[in-house]
């Protein structure tokens, strides 16, 4: 056998072995990441009740307790492969990153009433924001999380209206309107993102119906606008 070809085969086999080891290492970290996303989901889903509305700060604090572990997991994933191979492996954890973005964005909105932008989200979980930095948060990961958070807020708007937290109802309503206006300006090439963007319009429509009903019954006035 030609020595050059033999060397090529040996190198190819070694690369396959390295890939297998990296995939296995990353998957081990993803299992831990899943426990964090499940924990945050279980905690934050408790806000959709009368009692939950009154203890939102408590639930946000409890969900934040997952952050140190999440930061350590992303650091371990970052170390598992060369930076130039980021997009080779990114598909393994990108869905989980979007799920974490959903809950982090929701928590921050509930804590201070505005949107956590991509740069801040990156800092919260300890990952680079800049695409030139190798291991980073992609725009798609962030946007999928953002759109899921919008659906969470639309659900919370209905709950807040049901339990007469009208100030929160109008605050969320105004945020959904601004979000829809901004999102409609994006020229998205990702079909899945475009479809999720259509859901935002549906969420806003439901919110408008709830708010219109409250205004018709005199429960909501412009003075209650927290935007």
UniProtKB/TrEMBL annotation:
InterPro entries: Translin, Translin_C, Translin_fam, Translin_N, Translin_sf. Pfam families: Translin. Transmembrane segments: none annotated. Keywords: Cytoplasm, DNA-binding, Nucleus, RNA-binding. Signal peptide: none annotated. It comes from the Eukaryota. Belongs to the translin family. This is Translin. It comes from Laodelphax striatellus (Small brown planthopper).
């Amino acid at each position: 056998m030609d020595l050059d070809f033999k060397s090529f085969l040996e190198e190819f086999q070694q690369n396959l072995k390295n890939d297998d080891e990296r995939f296995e290492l990353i998957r081990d970290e993803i299992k831990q990441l899943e426990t964090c996303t499940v924990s945050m989901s279980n905690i934050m889903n408790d806000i959709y009740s009368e009692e939950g509305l009154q203890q939102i700060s408590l639930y946000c604090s409890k969900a934040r307790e997952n952050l140190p572990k999440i930061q350590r997991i992303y650091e371990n994933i970052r170390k598992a492969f060369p930076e130039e191979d980021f997009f080779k492996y990114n598909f393994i954890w990108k869905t989980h990153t979007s799920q974490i973005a959903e809950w982090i964005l929701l928590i921050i909105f509930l804590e201070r009433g505005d949107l956590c932008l991509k740069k801040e989200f990156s800092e919260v979980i300890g990952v680079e924001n800049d695409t030139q930095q190798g291991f980073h948060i992609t725009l798609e990961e962030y946007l999928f999380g953002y759109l899921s958070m919008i659906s969470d807020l639309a659900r919370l708007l209905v709950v807040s209206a049901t339990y007469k937290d009208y100030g929160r109802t109008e605050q969320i309503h105004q945020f959904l309107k601004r979000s829809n206006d901004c999102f409609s300006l994006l020229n998205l090439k990702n079909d899945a993102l475009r479809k999720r963007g259509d859901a935002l319009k549906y969420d806003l429509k439901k919110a408008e119906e709830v708010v219109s009903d409250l205004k018709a019954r005199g429960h909501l006035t412009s003075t209650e606008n927290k935007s």
